[in-house]
Design brief:
The protein is mainly alpha-helical. It has nine helices and seven strands, in the order αααααααββαβαββββ. The chain has helices at residues 3-26, 28-53, 60-67, 78-107, 113-141, 150-169, 178-206, 227-234, 257-263; strands at residues 217-218, 221-222, 244-246, 272-276, 279-282, 294-297, 304-307. The strands form three sheets. A three-stranded parallel beta sheet has the order 3-4-6, with helices on one face. The protein has a two-stranded antiparallel sheet with strand order 1-2. Strands 5-7 form a two-stranded parallel ribbon.
Length: 325
């Protein structure tokens, strides 16, 4: 072949090669044929993992849609998937709390006292729920064996789910439709808790640990209970060291329990004992979450009494009618 003909064919060959590459890479039909298959395969596998993880849940559709939204799902362990679900639940709780605050602010002059109290209950319960979910995350990520905390996880998640029911129960005697504004989101939160509990149950199957309902016991007490606390439960009143004394006759540090509770330290890591002498104390006690390690000690049944008379009939929610909370 002559050099002249070779020079003529060479540019044509280059153009043909470029055209072929361009057509293969950018022509929609050919491009989609080779690029969509791996993508569809990846999505299918992603959904399969979500469905497998959500097997046994009561609200499967919600569980699958939630779990399938997590990135890198194929790399996540079961505790990591539960943690991601808990984070998604926490986000919804915060949104519901914001909605309640906004609702209370906008309708404060139009709502009945029981509606306002019910909204306040919900806000406090949402706050409690966030604290419980944070503890769940700590238990799931604290060690390489989160199944050891199975009982704690079950208790915390069950408590968080109950909080949502208590929130809605506060509107039982409302004459307005206030409950309707928050009911949908609160019920969805409860479903997330239910699904998380079902997933946590799978951790139990991975654990070989067998314990009684209260965990391992020794001499009738749980092994996790410190010796000093066991001793406090066993000692008689006259042999116990008190941090504060409440007495109606003025012989103690305070005459009301609430005064003593306010004087107790916040976030204590040692037991703080408040001795309440014989008498009837007409007050409502609410132990704030910051008041940790508090112990109330009375003189016995029928001697130290804490009384109240709140009821739903008088416009109180069940949550607020408790004498001690």
């Amino acid at each position: 072949m002559s050099p002249k003909i070779l020079h003529t064919l060479l540019p044509f060959s280059v153009l043909l090669l470029l055209f072929t590459l361009f057509t293969f890479n950018f022509h929609p039909k050919i491009f989609n044929k080779y690029s969509e298959a791996p993508k569809k395969l990846h999505i299918h596998k992603h959904i399969q993992i979500a469905e497998s993880t959500c097997e046994g849940t009561l609200y499967t559709d919600l569980c699958v849609s939630t779990v399938a939204s997590f990135p890198e799902l194929h790399r996540k362990t079961l505790p990591e998937i539960i943690s991601a679900t808990v984070n998604a639940t926490m986000k919804q709780v915060r949104e519901s709390a914001s909605n309640c605050s906004s609702l209370r602010r906008k309708l404060i002059k139009r709502l009945d006292p029981i509606d306002l109290r019910a909204l306040d209950d919900c806000l406090e319960l949402f706050s409690d729920t966030i604290a419980e979910l944070k503890n769940v995350l700590t238990s799931l990520t604290a060690t390489n064996s989160p199944e050891k905390y199975y009982d704690d996880l079950q208790t915390l998640l069950s408590g968080g789910m109950t909080n949502q029911d208590t929130c809605l129960d506060g509107f039982a005697y409302s004459r307005n439709n206030t409950r309707g504004f928050i009911q949908g989101s609160v019920k969805k939160i409860s479903k997330h808790f239910s699904n998380s509990l079902a997933m946590v149950k799978k951790l139990k199957k991975r654990s070989n640990k067998t314990t009684s309902f209260y965990g391992k016991t020794k001499n009738g007490y749980p092994t996790w209970m410190k010796k000093i606390d066991r001793r406090l439960l066993q000692l008689t009143v006259n042999k116990t060291r008190f941090d504060l004394v409440v007495a109606k006759d003025g012989s103690g540090n305070f005459t009301t329990i609430n005064e003593a509770l306010m004087a107790a330290p916040n976030n204590s890591d040692t037991r703080f004992v408040i001795y309440i002498k014989t008498g009837a104390y007409y007050e409502y006690i609410e132990v704030d979450r910051r008041k940790t390690m508090i112990m109330f000690l009375g003189d016995g049944i029928g001697k130290t009494l804490i009384k109240g008379n709140r009821s739903v009939v008088d416009g109180w929610t069940t949550f607020r009618s408790s004498t001690v909370g």
